[in-house]
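Lab manual, section 2.4: Encoding a predicted structure.

Procedure: take the sequence of the chain (385 residues), apply the prediction step described in section 2.3, and record the output as structure tokens. A sample record is shown.
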Amino acid sequence: MEQTTENIYKFGIIGCGLMGREFASSVARWCHLAEMDVKPEIVAVCDSNPDILKWYTNNFDSIEQVTSDYKELLSNDNVDAVYIAVPHNLHQEFYCAAIEAGKHLLGEKPFGIDKAANDVITECINKHPGVFVRCSSESPFFPALQKVGKMIEEDVFGAILEVNSGFLHSSDMDFSKPINWKRMLKFNGEYGCMGDLGMHALHMPFKAGLIPKNVRAILSNVVEERPDGKGGMAKCETWDNATLFCETVETKSGNEFPMTIKTQRIAPGNKNTWYLEIIGTKTSVKWSSKQLNTLEILEYTGGEQAWQVIDMGHEMAYKSITGGIFEAGFSDSILQMWAAFLYELNHGKPISKFAGCVTPAEVALSHKLFTASLESQKNSSVVNI
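Recorded output:
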């Protein structure tokens, strides 16, 4: 079908930093999507830093409202939906205010600084069923993971023996890097790296119905203090790295197996690496964003075992104008995530199971896992979820 502008949702952005600019850039590229019958338009922006807002007003003529007060943006009747990217301690206040104002919401993870905050957000969502709410996470929208999703739906793996998923990067490898809000309990919460990075590692497993029964967590505060930017040193209060060992059940079959989830801010050799491995009795797959467009598949039918390597092209869930032979990148996955949000908002369901954004129920499950992980670390114990 030809793209139309018949269905336009007018957006406000609250928190206009790195990921806000990524969303705005996706809006500017919307014509890249070949068969979308819905379109976003940025009409309002809100941030406490006026210098950040200049980038938006310089690049988007559609912006009608510029403010430092998020309540002013939410009271704007011309705003249909909002993207909110603020520190975790503000999630409960901002997200609930947006939902109560009747604004459709895509919010950043982890949807609350802790489980108590997430419970309040979840209750607010349930009280306003006419408001569409999803959580930001772009990892499944790479073509290789879309193929893995189809393989899961086709039930090709046999009995799952093991799943390993993670998000590893090196943002804090420089020990002289000044402290930021993500290392402070009052802003980031006790989850530390789990709250920041965990949904990236959990998005595919949770969509696949792989539900942890319990967890033994090993959490590490690798760098205990950092420069405070004022000539002194400040205590780092949150976890740098986390490894979660989970006894997991596949909801469809009832099969139980081990699943390992890793989230690390200090991961030597990794700039910004997603990975997923599913090991099954019939089929196994391995993927890493280090080779973003490469998928390894092992199909066992007896005899010798051999991994095959498949090069993925631009096989996106939401069709784009890019030729299928070309590779996909990070900006493509962001565009696809936003296409998923708008498509489901407009049509009531995603184009396919694994082409949907993180749901509030999936977010709530992550909070149960992270809360249990904190208890596991504290007591060196296995904790039921």
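Check your result against the sample. The two ends are 46 Å apart (CA to CA).
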